[in-house]
Amino acid sequence: MATSETANSPPARATPARTRRALPRAERRNQLIRATIKCVAKKGLAATTMADITTEAGLSTGIVNLHFKTKELLLVETLRFVTDEYKQGFDKIFVDKNSADLEIVRAIVNYDFSPQIVNRNKLAVWFAFLGEVKARPIYQKICARHDNDINQQLGALFASLLKRSGNHSVDVELIASGYSALTDGLWLDILLSPRRTSTAIAREVAWQYVSGIIN
Amino acid sequence: MATSETANSPPARATPARTRRALPRAERRNQLIRATIKCVAKKGLAATTMADITTEAGLSTGIVNLHFKTKELLLVETLRFVTDEYKQGFDKIFVDKNSADLEIVRAIVNYDFSPQIVNRNKLAVWFAFLGEVKARPIYQKICARHDNDINQQLGALFASLLKRSGNHSVDVELIASGYSALTDGLWLDILLSPRRTSTAIAREVAWQYVSGIIN
DNA sequence: TCCCTGAATGAATGATCATTCATTTGTTCT
DNA sequence: AGAACAAATGAATGATCATTCATTCAGGGA
């Protein structure tokens, strides 16, 4: 307990007092992105200031401009970070399992409602950016590309799954869009009222949708 | 055509040059809310300034503070305006039709994807506020209450519908939550990439979900 | 017609904030 | 060790913005 510390508080080291240490570029950038996620989740996109971010990271005023040039570029990288993270876990499901399509679908539903994904901070950041897509072409582009990638992979998966079961009467594109929309909506529900829509219930709703399709 | 004018441009009158006219409180407030919707849709919640709003409304600097006290209060009233407007149309469906439950469900799906609701400006505003719910308790409260109301009415409707068909094996709460989440997700898709997800497709996906339930 | 009331105006104010850059400090190479 | 380089700092700057309030003006009652 004595050695525990909050994620981004300045390290309470035994040695001198708060040394400043040069870090590889990539590591500093990651640290700043993480701090940004925390701040945006807590204060929202509109109210998050550079001072909030650098304080959260335990660093100095000019550090963001040094590593990202401008605040806006940091925000864009933060959005990319969040989408890339989701995509990595998503792709892993396809690679890991060379098992049956049905197993993959099951794994995706579990992934979408795993603690890794259903995390109020990350959800808040994701929807904060989505809330600005109409106004900011760059956010729109990143989010749309992300959604598109996911949908294409889901479409192929559903196609393979339904061909196997001899069902040709349904449009896989529609089903993939439906599943994506449903999960987005369920995440939003969880963000909005975590009491009412628990993760378990959301997973059940998503699973019901999927099993309604494949039976 | 000669007399047409954009909604909020300063009235191009034949008389003098831009008279200033006192308006009933409620009318001015509505005018400012409408201007806010336009601005938030165009520039986003974060970047919308008081000057943007008053310019859009064709009024002077201090007008918002006169009618809403602060910018934040104007934003809250704008959110309420958007949710109330949806709710009014929604309630009307229940009142208008004393017809079969199935007809009501059909009307709701049509309503949710009618031009009145699927309007990129209003969708942008709705999601702009949703994007800030984690950070702003007042937005969270308004949005959560709205979603809750809708869900309760939908739950009752589905219950009545399924009782009639003798189906007792399904949880109506789950179905209502699912439908709400699905529509939210579909709206988001439309906002994000209007090309890919057309309104017609979205309606079809929503209707597929519903008919999967009631059969 | 002439007040009187309150709606509307907009210049001025002060607070907030992103960005800059001269200086400090850590790291690496010889 | 110490020179050379790069990373990090943070006080200073200038821009942006919400809010204030003294003044202007429209409309209705006497």
Report on this structure.
The structure is a homodimer of 215-residue chains. In chain A, 70% of the residues lie in helices and 0% in strands. With 215 residues, chain A is an all-alpha fold. The first copy, chain A, has two domains: 21-69, Homeodomain-like (Arc Repressor Mutant, subunit A); 78-214, Tetracycline Repressor, domain 2 (Orthogonal Bundle). In chain A, helix 4 (71-96) packs parallel to helix 7 (137-164). Chain A is elongated. At the A-B interface, helix 1, helix 6, helix 7, helix 8 and helix 9 of A face helix 1, helix 6, helix 7, helix 8 and helix 9 of B. Chain A binds a DNA duplex (30 and 30 nucleotides) through residues 19-23, 25, 28, 49-51, 59-66, 70-71.
